[in-house]
Design brief:
The protein is an alpha+beta fold. It has 11 helices and 7 strands. It folds into 3 domains: 118 residues, Cytochrome Bc1 Complex, Chain D, domain 2 (Orthogonal Bundle); 86 residues, Cytochrome c-like domain (Cytochrome Bc1 Complex, Chain D, domain 2); 48 residues, SH3 type barrels (Roll).
């Protein structure tokens, strides 16, 4: 799908949909300056994955078992399809995964974690770890064989907003939590184009040169009455999981516990349902003036 140099209203809506999709897969989008002055801004997903050093095959039932375990243990950060999620990397484009041979590199990393990157250690049964490795390699093989690419988005396609209107919208919807002279001072110097849009729509996406914010805090009350606190690691309709203060991953069926989640960034998720196409263009235009 191609967008015209002078974007039509339809094309502008398409840009926003592409941008939200980029946020959803957790892709950090380089700024124009990082691309040698070119007009287009390409998603990392447009690049071919690193070639798998040793092609591997696994039984389908093991891959499916791994899909379930990966979704529960790893999906919150790395996405259910291993292609990137809430601050976690796209494993289908990971050099470590490309060089892994049946878990010889993935396994030790899972066991020890990377606390400096926000990844806890996981004490998993060997069968679960092997199944997760099988699933990751299956997803990697699919990425290797995929044809085509995901197109870049022109910076010019984003430049149709009214900064004055964006300021008014910001003062009404955003100023309770953000300040142009405080936390947002100079944000247009730190993030440009799609990277700035990404931060605006979903601050948890991080973006080039920024660490994603800490996961939300969660408080879980067990059937015994014990209260456990930590950082949210995973949540769906069936499971709630956290990383506790000791770095251990703990999970429970949602029907067996009660819990509260303290996420100050949830307002950005709610805001996505309120923005019109014009609102998003205008607010982005205003943020681009904060230098």
């Amino acid at each position: 799908m191609l967008l015209s140099p002078s974007p039509s209203p339809f094309a502008r809506v398409t840009v926003w949909l592409c941008a939200v999709w980029l946020v959803a897969i957790g892709g950090a989008v380089p700024s124009a300056g990082a691309q040698g002055g070119g007009r287009g801004q390409a998603s990392p997903a447009a690049q071919r994955p690193p070639q798998t050093t040793t092609p591997q095959q696994y039984p389908r039932e093991q891959v499916e078992a791994g899909r379930t375990r990966f979704g529960a243990q790893c999906g919150f950060c790395h996405g259910r399809d291993a292609a990137g999620g809430e601050g976690g990397t796209d494993l289908t484009r990971s050099p470590l995964v490309a060089d892994d041979v049946r878990g010889n590199r993935i396994g030790p990393l899972v066991r020890t974690g990377r606390t400096d990157k926000g990844m806890p250690a996981f004490a998993l049964p060997e069968a679960d770890l092997t199944a997760i490795v099988a699933y990751i390699h299956d997803q990697k093989a699919q990425a290797d064989s995929a044809t085509g690419g995901r197109r870049a988005v022109d910076v010019a396609d984003l430049q149709s907003g009214d900064a004055g209107a964006g300021r008014k919208y910001f003062e009404g919807a955003c100023s309770k939590c953000h300040s142009p002279g405080g936390d947002l001072a100079g944000i247009a110097k730190r993030f440009e184009g799609l990277a700035l849009l990404q931060r605006m729509l979903n601050p948890r996406s991080g973006g080039r040169g920024a660490r994603p914010p800490a996961p939300p805090a969660v408080t879980i009350r067990l059937p015994s009455g014990q209260v456990v606190t930590g950082m949210l690691a995973y949540r769906d309709e069936f499971t709630i999981a956290m990383t506790d203060a000791s770095g251990w991953y703990r999970s429970w069926p949602t029907e067996q516990v009660t819990f509260t989640i303290d996420d100050p960034l949830h307002a950005h998720v709610e805001q996505l349902g309120r923005y019109t196409d014009a609102d998003m263009h205008n607010v982005l235009a205003y943020l681009q003036t904060l230098r």
